[in-house]
Give the backbone structure.
Amino acid sequence: MSIVSAVTDLRSFEQFFRDEYSSIVTLCAWLTGDRTTGEDLAQEAFGTVHRRWGEVSTYDRPGAYARRIAINLCSNERRRRGRERRALLRVEPPDTAEHLRVAAGQDPLWVEVAALPVQQRAAIGLRYLEDRSTDEIAAVLDCSPATVRVHLHRAHRRLAERLGCTTDDEGDPR
Amino acid sequence: MTSTDDTGTGGGRIEDRLQAAAAEVRATSDGVDTEAALAAVLRQRAPRRATPYVLGAAAAVAVLALTAALWPRGGHDVVADQSTTTAPPTTTVTPSTEVTSELVAGEYQSELAAGSLSYAGVSDALDDQAAAMLGSRYGQSLPIVDHGFDFDRWIVVGLTVPVDQACPDGPTRFDRRGDEVTPTFGPVGDPSRGCLTDTAPRTFFVQLLRSDLPEQFTLVLPSPQSGSTQERTLRIDLSAASATAFVDPTKTTDTTTTTTPEAPSDLEPPVAGREISFEAIGDLRLGQVVPRERVSTIGPDSECGYWPDGEVEHRADPPPTALVGRANTSQPTVSAVYLRNNPSYRTASGVGIGTSLTSLARVYGDRLVVDQADGWDRPTGGLLASYQTVAAVRDGDRAITYSLTSGPSRPWDPATATVDSIKVSAADFWGDDEGCA
C-alpha cells in the first residue's frame, strides 16, 4: 500500500469511527445493561474493524458490519459473565437475599429485555435506539427483512405479555 | 414510563416503554469521549498468540530462582529423627526433579470465546479423544495443535489461571516431588511485543513427558492462584487407558484397520431415564422449576442463570444442566437443557454425543439445518453459530441443537464431524443463543 493510500485509508477510518462510535456504544450499553461494558466492547469491535479496514472500507455498509461484531461481542460477554458467576459461586456461596434485593430494585423492562434471545434483543435495540428500518436491521443481523419482522414481533409480544402491556405489533408475518 | 392506550386497559403500550427506555440509554451514553476512544483503538496491537515453546536451560534456572523467592514450596516433609533426645527433629524434603514439558498452546480466554473464567482449573488428556474433549470443555473446539499428540510418549494437561493487569505469565517449568507435579509460572513469549491487559484468565495446554512422571500423580497449581483446592489439583492415573481410544486415520498405515465407524454404530437406542426429546434431556425438562439455592446467576441483576451451580460436565457421568430464566425469583424456570460429555443419553432415533453429522442428516433429512461457525467477528443470521458449527432441528416451537466438531487438530470437515454437545430449547433460542426468556 502506498503512503498516500495508507494515509487516506487511516483518515477514512477515523471519520467512520467518529460517525459511528457513539451509536455503537449506546447499542452495546443496551445489550449488556452497562455503559462501561458497552464502551469497552465498542472499542473492541472497532479494533477488529480497524485491523480489517482495508477490506471493510470496501463494504456497502461498514457500519452494519461493525454493529454485527459489536452484537456478537455483547453476546460473548453475557456468556463470559455466566461462567464467571458459576465459577465464583463455587468459592463463595450465593447471597440469595442480596440477589433478590437487587432484583427487586430493577426496572422490570430491563430484566425482561435481558432475557430475550440475542437476535431479538439486538433487533429491538436497533429499532428503538437507532430508529433503523427493517431493511437496515436485516443488513446488520445478516438475515432477511422477514426474519427481522419475526424477531421484532416475538420480542414485542413476549415483553408485552410479561409486563402486562399492549402492543401494536400484529400477527406473525410467517 | 407507563402510559395508557386508547382502550384504557392500562399497562401501556410496550412500544412506548421501549421508546422511553431507549431515550434513557441514549442519555447515559452522552459525553462519550470519542477522540480518546479513537486514539486507544489506533494504539491497539494485534493480540499475541503463544507458540510452541520449549524452555531453555538458562531461562529455566532464572525462573526457578524467581519462583523460589516468590512461592512456597510444596512437597512432603519426612521426619527422619525419631529419637527421644531434645535435639530438634530433622525434616527431609523430598528432592524434586524436572518434568520435561512443552507449552503447546496458550490463549487469552476472550479469544477462545469460551467466557472469562475467574477460577483456576486443571485438566488432562491421555488420548486423542480426551484431547478433543479438552478443547470443547473450554467452550469451543480449541485448535490446540496442528501436529497432533504422540500419546505414547506424552500426556497433555490444561491449566487455567486467573490473571492480574500485568503481562500474562504462563507455565514455564514442571517439577515432580514425590507424587505431586507442580508448574512454575513465568513470562511467556516476548514481552517486548506489548501486553494486552485484561481480566480474563488464560488457559495453557502443555505436553508432559510420560517417562518423567509417576504412574499416578497429582497435578497441583501453586497456592497463589485463586480457586478451591479441588479446582487446583487433579489426580492423574497414567495406567488408566481410554476405553474408546481414537484411531487417527491420518496416522495409521494399516489398511485393514477400521478408522471410521460405520454410520449405524454411532446411533444407540435410549435407555430408560436417559432420553433426549424436544422437551427434555433425562429428567430435566423445559419449563421445569428448579431449586433457587442451586442457581448461579449470570449477574446479580440478571434474569438468567445456570442450574446446578458450578460445572458438572467434568464428572465421570455428567448429568444434563440447565439455563434458567427468572433466576432471581423464587421459581427459576428451565429455559434450555444442555448435555456435554455423556453419550449415554439418546434420542428415540439413537442420536447422542458422538453421533456423526452423516447420521444426523440420515435421521432428520431436510429438517436438519447446519450452520458453520463464523467466529465471533463474523456472525451469521438465522441459526446462531458464533462459537461452533451447529446442526439443529425444529419441532413446532421447540428445537434441538447439536454442536459439532471435527476434532481439535483438523479443519472443519462434514465427513468427520460429530456431536459434542446437545441443547434442547425453545426454537427462538436454537443454535448458540443463550437467551432465557
Q: What stands out?
A: The mean pLDDT of chain A is 78. The radius of gyration of chain A is 19 Å.
